[in-house]
Hints:
Elements: H1 8-23, H2 28-35, H3 39-46, H4 54-64, H5 68-73
Helix pairs in contact: 2-3
Amino acid sequence: MHKTITSEKYRRLLAWLKSERERQGLSMRDLAEKLDVPHSFVGKIETAERRLDLLEYVEYCEALGAKPEDGLVILR
């Protein structure tokens, strides 16, 4: 098993998260505020400098008003 943070599927998931954020007109700072984290957290997620664990992914989706399962569908 290789590191998931470098996988194409993980990159697609990150692209989906970023597109959901942009679709809603949210800046990285706006989303960070909703998550109660520094804005650098969102930037590191979107550039794959930091990996989201499962619970963080769910919270990230909730802050975006997105369904976590919608992001997982793109991984198939």
